[in-house]
Amino acid sequence: MSTTTTAVLVPLLPFLGALAGFLTGRRAPGLVRPLAVLPTLAAAVLAIVVACRQGGGAALDAATRLTPTGSVPVDLALHLDGFAVLVAVLVGVVATCVQLYSTAYLRDDPRYPSYAALVSLFTAAMLLVVYTGDLMVLLVGWEIMGICSYFLVGHYWETEAARSASLKAFLVTKLGDVPFLIGIFALAADAGTFRINGIIATAASGGLDHPTLVALLLLAGVAGKSAQFPLHTWLPDAMAGPTPVSALIHAATMVAAGVYLVARLLPVFAASAAALVVLAVMAAVTMVGSALAALAQDDIKRVLAYSTVGQLGYMTGALAVGDRGAAVFHLISHGAFKALLFLGAGVIIHAAGTNSLAAMARMNGLAKRIPDAYWTMTVALLALAAIPPFSGFFSKEAVLGAAEHAATGGAHGIPAAAAGPAGWTVLIAGLVTAVLTAGYATRLWLLAFHGKGAEAPDHGREPVAMNGVLWVLFVPTAALGLAAWKLPDWFDGRSLTPGLTTSVLSTGCAVAGALVMYAAWRRTAALAARTPLGAVAADPDASPAVSEIEAIDSHEPVYGTIAAAPDPGDPGRLILGPLHRHAATGFHLDAVYSTLFVRPTRAAARLARFLDREVVDAYVRGAATAPGLLGAAVRRAQTGNVQTYLGALLAGSVVLAVTAVLVATGA
Hints:
Helix content is 73%, strand content 3%. The chain is mainly alpha-helical. Strands 1-2 form a two-stranded antiparallel ribbon. Strands 3-4 form a two-stranded parallel sheet. Helix 13 packs antiparallel against helix 14. Pfam families: Proton_antipo_M, Proton_antipo_N.
């Protein structure tokens, strides 16, 4: 079987699995799990085969005309280079792990058949985005992921949080998709093609007529899909969905799509110095703001969600300084350890009966109850904090090294006017974020695994499907950094190995952040012991999904908010001080959007309703009322009395006769 045929099967198999799952899920429950796991597993294996055959060599392109349009044609195109094949392996492996994990996590969920089919469709859509060589076909996968995220985030639709989160995710991402679609059409108009290779060639030769406008329009879609400031607010709220969905969205699909798109179209963005500076500023604000917000969250999944936003900021920062190899390296590395962190968080929530770090801080022995999650998550948090020798250290160093080169004038392929400002912006923000990242990673580890108080409930060992997946993801989390010496052959040839200056600075920042958080925890631990606090699941022996639903439902009624907790024993509260209440709400961006957009939209809707009911409908009602009144008057004359009719006829005749006489005499 040729490499092209094998690559076509990679997105096709999960799609067929999804189609079969939708058609037979309820009729043949015994087929649901095989239809969920086997096509995705086969796609992952084939993606690995494609990657091995491609081997970082020359890009492989194949295309067929999908449909004539009368102007710019649309092609069903395939583009396989080092970036595409490695990202596809990430998507396939993570999706397979999520499907396996879900067989145990949602084992008693009556909606599991539709859930599994949607996950398969989600996977197929992302693989289509990764492999396609045509922007219109990419847009199809892009939008399918948006629809799937709406249904998957709202899977627990019985809860208000899930319903609101799914709608918010859909609307915010669509807000970015509108200018994104305009940008695609503008790009195709300038380049004369939707084929990505043709667009890149046009951009490299300076043939784009409006490079800044096109780049900024595309960035709007990227900001929405990859949860970058200012369209990142949907991602923390999306934690109301099932934990495996969170792992899939954060690690391998949806949010990775925007970063991957910019990496594929980097020459388009590099054609505009202004666009690169905007991208750098967006990345810097996203990194620092999300890291501060993560320090204030009480929900363990919201901490990880804000962490994802910040790590995506590192990736967009690398793209802003023109190094897509560093960006994709961090995308792959982050995908491995973030999937592990989210799936491990699902184990913790089930074992503790709560998603609240404040409640976990008052439990003793949770780490002993779930040793698999404890050890694998410890390594994943070290990778997140970029502590050597774990994968996150090498990939984050590649980003900071690229920023340093740009700041000192060593960047290639981007305008000199953008290199300095973008490089310094990304480098400084990256180092500040390194301190904060190590801080919130340490806080999560201390509060979740080293609480003091009553003994944590013992539910026995978690299912093998859940624990086994954690160890599968542990391998790339611990060892993927060794690929830093090999990946340049697959990417653009630029070195991804750590530099001395940035390595010392970032590692020092990470160690400092961890030590400060540990010192703060030592001071506040006594307060936690003296202050009873916590919301736990009402049914601790239920399946993991039920425990999660109960944890989500109980958090806001107990603490007054879905995000934070009034916990005097929280070391994050001590460090942030008066900034804590602002960070807990994401710096009130939702309130700002409500004031600027939601309230005016609702006011306009109320005005339209008033005009429709009281003005437009008034004319309609008037047109109906006048004939009604006339009919009522005529109806009164219809008495059925013959004498009355004869009298009226005689009176009318007299009136007509008198009128005729008067007219005839000229009176």
